[in-house]
Sequence to fold (98 residues):
Amino acid sequence: MNQERLIQILLAPHISEKSNRVAERYNQVVFKVARDATKPEIKDAVELMFKVKVKGVAVLNVKGKRKRFGSMNGRRSDWRKAYVSLEAGHEIDFVVAE
Fold:
């Protein structure tokens, strides 16, 4: 696959209590990904950027919340989340301690 496309797939790591829990228990990492990303593209992007071995990818679409801005009703954008399972012995650490 095209490396330029793979670099644009991963938008950001999704850091939350649940993502920390799955990281500890199941050796998974959670990413916010492009809305048109496929599982093979996500797998290749993670392996390219972080030099780890990926076991599997689960993807879900997150619906945007309805929000109110004063008297105006609005809605946040929908987005896509990917749970990436890593092979044993591999890990990605987003917190770099110096």
